[in-house]
Each structure stands twice: as structure tokens, then as C-alpha cells.
Amino acid sequence: MRMLSFTCILIFSLLTTLSPPLIQATSFNQTLPHPDPEAVALQVERRILASTVSKAQQSCGTGNPIDDCWKCDPNWSNNRQRLAECGIGFGQAAAGGKGGQIYVVTDSSDHDVANPTPGTLRHAVIQTEPLWIIFSANMQIKLKHELIVNSHKTIDGRGANIYITGGGCITLQYVSNVIIHNIHVYNCVPTGNTNIRSSPTHVGERGKSDGDGITIFGSRNIWIDHCALSHCTDGLIDVTMGSTAITISNNYFSHHDEVMLMGHDDHYMPDKGMQVTIAFNHFGQGLIQRMPRCRHGYFHVVNNDFTEWKMYAIGGSASPTINSQGNRYMAPSDPSAKEVTKRVDTEEGDWAGWNWRTDGDVLENGAYFVPSGQGLSNQYVKAASVEPKSAAMIDQLTSTAGVLGGPRDNGDRISYGGGTTTGASSSGGSSGGEDFFGMIFGNAAPPSTTNSSNIFLSILIILVVYITTSDGALLSLPLLLL
């Protein structure tokens, strides 16, 4: 008992001296999910219906409520932040950098991850104030290590062809209000075991990354829209550790095995609050599984086009709720892979009560969806319900999935091993410093690196060694850190 008390006191002392990015972890894990996820799903259906009706009244309308919200304005580039008002679903409150200044990335390099060069994407995303980040020209940004994005940021690639590849790639950890729009992400590989700056005042040592395209870890109010993702070492998009209030829309996924993971593991209870909308995406050539693979939370999968899988499309464990509406599922020719759904490592007696629903889906080439739980009932969420838009409109609703204004997918530069330079063009470096119509051109150098994080890490390592030699008390450490 005395040993345990000493351990708790020591951990508490360490927590009171943590740097701000680590302190944020406790607050985001306490984020409450939406109390009525069915109401959010119903709102999405109504937005789709309203956009489809208004399509006949405006020449630019597509029926896609996200695109119609901003693309119908011919002068959208003069009001880029209008995009923040166009989200749907659980991530619709993601404000990104709305209200902040425009930061123009003028330098495609990533030379120093501990002291990023002003004018680079890395320098932009670590700032603490809200920023709407755009690009001065077409760029390939080959990252040396994972790109750690701070809260209240929009990465807006409209008007340029932006390719992000290399080490990492994009990490959203214990942050909120981030929008990533119109970016190619491909050939991301594991890197790490180095110091990386995550804010103007904090540099910390990072372990080895998994090589995900986009990692969403303990974060909320996140929107990923109109991106093309392929060929990463681990997942294309991974959402874990209590993340919630997320929309993944209008993206083009291709050439990958484990596409999207939703949930840390079957025993991580904070993921019960995970709520994700997956809408208008194209799941294309060369995909195998996990579109997505879900744990615990609520997942609204609506009006997506699943054109290829090798094993299954949607999977899950630990009793997630899956609400599949108005999707098109095209089964592969393999007769053993016709099922859309897969309950992972679970016996039927255990998953029979899981709430998996199919509503208005079109199942082609022998595809079949196995519902369960409330999904077996015709009465499921039918009161005041709006019928999901027919999957017959999938071609129209997903016609612009992927990156706008260039190749929709990453087919022009597909390779393994960390990135290519085919067709890339990038601007040179810029000293910055000019303020032009509210646009920031990177005029402030980050402060010098401090060794406070290294001191903390050394103390923590000593603590872990001490605890593991004291009757296996290590299990108390993650509980205290949450």
C-alpha cells in the first residue's frame, strides 16, 4: 500500500508539470458524444433530400449538399471560409480555421521538423491561432516525419494540386476543429524516434509512427473532405482513442489493404462515444477490407460507392452500431467474398444483438448485407424518417469524390516506398514577411528547442521501470493518464 501511494504521488507530480499538448489529452477524452445519433443521421438524410430538390432550381446543383453549399458560388475563392459552414453529419461543427487569417504555403520543403521554416506547411499547422491554410502553387510535400496538426486549422488545397507523402503522414492528436480538404495523401511510411515541434513553444520526442495517411487520435470535430488516399503502410484513415464528432466525405480511396480503422481495441471503453459519418466516398480499385472496420461507436455510412473489395467492405467487433443507408455495394467475382459485412473474431451468438442496419442500399453482383439486432426490424427509426436517397443516384452524388481540379485519385503517381516525384511542381523557398489582403506568408520564426520534454521523458522512463518491478502495478499508469 505504501509503495502504491508513493507511485500515485509521483505520477501526480509529473502530471502537474506536463507540457500543454499533453495536458490537452485529459480534456478531449472527456468529450461527450451527441446524445441522439439517430437525429444526426436523420438530419443528413434531410440535407441530401433538400439538395436534390434544389438541384432542379440551380444549374450548378449536383444533389451533393456539401458541394452545392460552396461550389455554386462562382466567387468561392474570395470567400474560402464559407466551406466551414458546409459540413454534414457528426463532424459538421468542425470550424477548422474559420475566423482566422489566411496562411499561404509558399515553400514545399520539410527540412527541419523541430524548427520548421516559415512559409512551409509544417510551420503553418503548428501555430496556436486559427488559420486557413492555402497553397501558392502545385506542390509535392515529402515529409521527413509525421505532420502534427494543431487545433483550429483548415488545410485547403482548392486551386492547386497538393500531394503529401513520405514520413508519417498527417497526425491529429488531442486536437479539435480541423478540416482537411482537397489533398492527395499517398505512400506514407513509418518514421519517428525524433524530436518534432507540435506548437510554437513545444518540441517533443516522438516514437515510431505507423505510416497512416491520416491519424485521428483522441480528437473531435474533424472533417476530411475531397481527399485522395492510397498506398500507405498502415491505414489510410485511422480514428482511435476516444475520437468523436467526425465526418469523412467525398474522398477517393484506392490501392490499399486496411482502409479505415475506427476504434483502438475491443477493451477501450472511451470509444463507445465515437460517432462518425461516412458519406459520398468512392471506394475504388485495389481495396481489400476495412471500409471501415468499427468498434463500439455509432457509424452512419450513407450514399457511398463501394466498387471493389477482396475480403469485405464493412466490419466490426465490440458491438458497434452501423447504419448503412443508400450505398451501392458491388461484390467481387470471388464467390467466397460476396458478403458486405464481417463480424470480426466474434461468434454469431455474440453478435446477433448488434445493431447493424441496411436501408435503401443497392447490392450488385451477388453482394449481400447481413443485418442484426434492431436492424432486423422494419420499425427501426422509421418515425418521422426521411427515406435515404436512392443508391440509383450514387453516380451523381459521388461524381466528384476525390480531389477537385486535377486527378481524382493518386493514379498519376502510384508507387511503393515513400513517394514519387512524377508530375510534381513546387515553388521554391520564400523568406516571407508580407501581409497581403490578410494572407500570412510565414513571417515569424519558431522559438528555439527546449529540453523540457526530454527531462519529462527521462523521469517517466525511470518511473515505468520502478513500477514494473513493483508487483505489476503498471496497469494503474494509463488509467491515471486518461
UniProtKB/TrEMBL annotation:
Protein name: Pectate lyase
Top-level class of the enzyme under EC nomenclature: lyase
Cofactor: Ca(2+)
Record field: transmembrane: 455-481
SUPFAM superfamilies xref list: Pectin lyase-like
Pathway note: Glycan metabolism; pectin degradation; 2-dehydro-3-deoxy-D-gluconate from pectin: step 2/5
Enzyme Commission no: 4.2.2.2
Swiss-Prot/TrEMBL keywords: Calcium, Lyase, Membrane, Metal-binding, Signal, Transmembrane, Transmembrane helix
One of the record's GO molecular function terms: metal ion binding
Note accompanying the cofactor annotation: Binds 1 Ca(2+) ion. Required for its activity.
Region annotation Disordered: where it falls in the sequence: 402-430
Pfam families named in the record: Pectate_lyase_4
Highest taxon above the source species: Eukaryota
Species name: Heracleum sosnowskyi
InterPro entries: AmbAllergen, Pec_lyase, Pectin_lyas_fold, Pectin_lyase_fold/virulence, PEL
Family in the record: Belongs to the polysaccharide lyase 1 family.
